[in-house]
Amino acid sequence: METNEKTVSGNFIEVAIKRDLEDGTYSRPIKTRFPPEPNGYLHIGHAKSICLNFTLGAEFNGTTNLRFDDTNPTKENDEYVKAIENDVKWLGFDWAEECFASDYFDKMYECAEMLIKKGRAFVCELTPEQMKEYRGTLTEPGKESPYRNRSIDENLRLFREMRDGKYEDGEMCLRAKIDMSSPNMNMRDPVIYRISHDAHHRTGTKWCIYPMYDFAHPLEDAIEGVTHSICTMEFEDHRPLYDWVLRETEWTEPPRQIEFARLNITNTVMSKRYLKRLIDDGVVEGWDDPRMPTISGLRRRGYTPEAIRNFCADIGVAKAYSKVDAAQLESCIRNDLQLKTQSRNVILDPLKVVITNYPEGRTEMCEIENNRNVPEMGTRMVPFSRELYVEREDFMEVPVKKYFRLFPGNEVRFKGAYFITCDEVVKDDAGNVTELRCKYDPETKSGSGFEGRKVKGTIHWVDAASAVPVTVRDFGYLLRTDEETGEEVTNENTITIHEAFAEPAIEDSEPGSRWQFFRHGYYIEDTKLSTPDHKVFNRTVDLKSSWKPKKK
Ligand code: ATP
Ligand code: MG
Which of 122, 229, 332, 365 could cysteine-pair with 381, CB 3.0–4.6 Å? Predict the structure, then answer.
């Protein structure tokens, strides 16, 4: 029995594989595959499939292939092949063999001729419109094509002529001869080969006929010796055709297809076609834009392979449709980075502070821990002097209730340094606050054991003289739910740029380094935009989680 539950003994796919092992269904080891079409970059939905296939392969002492399902010459290219290889490796998986469906074109052609010779396939000359009309509907049976009863010899001749380039795209096609009255539309004499004179990224112009997915995929699996072909639910209705192809082309111990629900996440979209449109429309800068749900986008955003793998394990495998809250993914990266990153002080929206009673020209060093939760990460020395920057939002001229940060007359702790009291606000002609004049209490240095009084607010700061200008980018969700229609619509302004000041120890960073910016969130130095002279950081995730695991 298949269930939706992630049980102690494993998910329903594991249960099915275990049963096949017990029954001795296969005399060969378990083999799975991850079969992307190289027509775009992988997204987090693919990561779910990758984790599932590779984990199952390993768990049952079997193997997993990486297979490029490149049977459609128009949309596929080598850039995508390279990017996919890179992403799968980065996620931490090793494939047994790297395969290309296009390497099997000869074998697939042979299988097609085999079907013709058995009277199970015919060359059809209906136009696409006619074919649609003949197909019937869910409630009405279809009509048989007038070309359905051609002789085997005529079919063979025409199919070979198709292969030899005698016909234009769409002039004719090869169809399986199954059942035009089947309640399953996929079984109504589906097209299995079509003509396309486009060049293929690997086979060039060798072929001008290409197998259709439903014919090619089971053969690819069978040729590679795959035992369990795991795919998403929309292929459930294609399974009878999958089985038909393998039966009619006479494979022993044919692979079996098992379906699971695709991953959907709120505020984003899992479709290469849609993601490509976002790029083409200039909504994002490319496949690896940090706002994209692609593996390369998440990587550039600062996600770790561990966080993505944990996420895929947490969400589990089921057959029922569901949508995962984006906050659950964010929670996974936060949990991972919490113990891995050092803290740095960065002021995103700087407001100048002058400590009027601090000697001019003096600089002292304050020792600040690198990670409050991991003492082994040690400390660093942070310069402090008379002129500093704080966050503009850490000051309110007229404080709201329960505001414990800077306001005239209030004393706060400057993290790792002193107690500081704001006593004067400087404004420009337009009335904007341009500077705070403050006093420090020399008795209160952090670590000095001072216990005289307590303050409620602690804020971070950066020494002005040694501050390092950096650019910090924050991101919003690409999509949001429209409150009236409940539909997801494209968000505007999903990128916020801060010209920020960082403490000097930010110089330890290199492109790809991850940090916690104290009180702000987790960040990564961008691998594309950062230069040795000016660093650019991307916000991976903020500090606070709104997502809580559901109580079991
Ligand atoms: P897209 O619509 O984004 O192009 P696809 O399914 O056409 O997705 P493929 O390259 O054909 O993309 O998919 C490779 C594998 O990844 C397939 O086995 C597919 O089922 C799986 N996959 C794709 N999207 C998801 C998803 N959102 N959740 C889980 N698995 C997915
Ligand atoms: Mg596809």
Answer: 365
Report CA-CA distances (Å) from 39 to 35, 53, 99, 273, 276: 12, 20, 16, 9, 10
Q: Which of 32, 33, 34, 49 to mutate to test the pocket of ligand 1 (most atoms within 8 A of CB)?
A: 49
Residues in contact with ligand 1 by the CB-under-6-Å rule are: 35-37, 45-46, 48-49, 231-232, 262-263, 270-272
CA–CA gap between residue 434 and residue 63 (Å, rounded): 64
Ligand 1 atom with minimal separation from the 232 CA = 20
The 10s digit of each residue's pLDDT in 68-123 is: 999 999 888 899 999 999 999 999 999 999 999 999 999 999 999 999 999 999 99
**Looking at the CA of 273, which ligand is closest?**
1
**Ligand 1 atom closest to Cα of 48?**
29
How confident is the model over 454-474, as pLDDT tens digits? 999 999 999 999 999 999 999
pTM of the model: 0.94
As a whole number of Å, the end-to-end CA separation of the chain is: 23
CA triple 240-245-251, angle to 5 deg: 115
Q: What are phi and psi for residue 9, nearest 5 degrees?
A: -80, 5
